[in-house]
């Protein structure tokens, strides 16, 4: 159990509290409480509402798009100074936090009858003093503490008021307890402290008469991953205690925390009054709604300054000092410029957002390709079927992939899993949240290159339309290249259209034929079929991500720039809702699909034949010929497309001759 918290629980009869985990929102030199509208004096690591910024306030935080904390109704910001490792050569390396911050809300009272309140709107406060370099036994300094975590080594170190001078194999936990007694009037004060006071026990007890209103108690735990630097201690300026806070503080006495309220006050008051469990499990409080624990919320930089990685000096004017005298303030001689930071979900800043020089970003364009988002992919069905590069040498970049795609005149290209380059002339892959494509390229850590089953996706601005799989007229959805056969049709009804076949004509014919039709399918360059469902265990032909390779590779008889299925292959489209049915040409007709029907003009030819003669013998011979043709359809040659186009444009003056010639042609083609 946490040492400080265990002490707290023993000092009061009311043990109610909850713990709220928060992920990091951003790291930068910003502090809208102490330095509103300006670059702050030192670097902070910030958690909470995405509308954090140099001038953030209660109103702007309440409009945040997301929060990096677990509770969705809390758009507050929580921050502490960042920690660095100092090398002997005077350079610094930032020390990452383990999982962000753990924020405790504790219902501490002087007695069970004392009323406890939520933070008022517009409220903010600071605990601790950044300039301190020595210890005095005041309530404020007692509120700052450290714990060296070493449970894997079987050790338990006592809590200290300073950074402990020994190795902490499981992390260094920095702790700050905020004052909980309010003057009842001011939401802030000039020093950001005097409107608040500590109770006489610091973390428990009675409030002073000057600050009679008891607010819920706030306590931060921030664990720094110092373990990664254990092997580097011999290279440190001070091997015994090599860490320094962003204020230049090597003692830890200047550690502090800031809180800018962004709570829905009604929700917080409900929780304070009614969530009285002593387990600390926040999910037990019914007043709260929770984010997905895997959700990501960030804010792009407000300050154009590199504050992570290896640095030649601490950002700002923060010389390293060890006391005992307080650190003196100095002015940053060359403050950095500022950005208009934006909040965003996912792991990638939105396109166009400013980033610092050492942060990855999306490459906007390369080799005539333009970024269009993060695309979905799958192992069993590739969105882009052609792999151009599988980089194993650590050299993949967006530029390299786009150059390869441009040389082969592809329409779409993308990089997946940091090192794989894929391309294709198929329909645009489905969109995924932009933040999903969070892997950086193996050849350039400042570029994003997709992720697992995610493509950082581009389309060519120079590509001209050749033959392609039509994604469907407005309102329809292309669902794939499906198998078909003459014995068991995928769709039960055939439809004829006016003139030569196109995808749009088939969709229109099926839409107008019956309100029950939910699907339209084009096959064999000129056939059109309709149905309310996919029948007879028809399946998507493989590879599912590439309809052309799957066999839907015949050009439409009425549009040579799009495909209309293939031999025993249907390009299938989900029809629009009945409220937006496309009107079909007036001459379109539909008939029940039979095993003998193999090309879309057969229905039309049958109609012509019936109009030309009433002889039953001729009808029987026509049916017999169709039956023979049906059995041989699988062996048709690719030149059927030309023959089909020829018979699909008859001369009205030669109907009888055309019928005879066509019957002979069908018999010949079937062999």
Automatic annotation (TrEMBL):
Pfam families: DUF1996, WSC
InterPro entries noted in UniProt: DUF1996, WSC_carb-bd
Biased composition annotated in UniProt, kind: Basic residues: 616-635
WSC domain: residues covered: 368-461, 475-576
Keywords: Signal
PROSITE patterns: WSC
Annotated region described as Disordered, given as residue ranges: 609-646
Signal sequence extent: 1-16
Record bears the keyword Secreted: no
Name the UniProt record assigns to this protein: WSC domain-containing protein
Biological source species: Mixia osmundae (strain CBS 9802 / IAM 14324 / JCM 22182 / KY 12970)
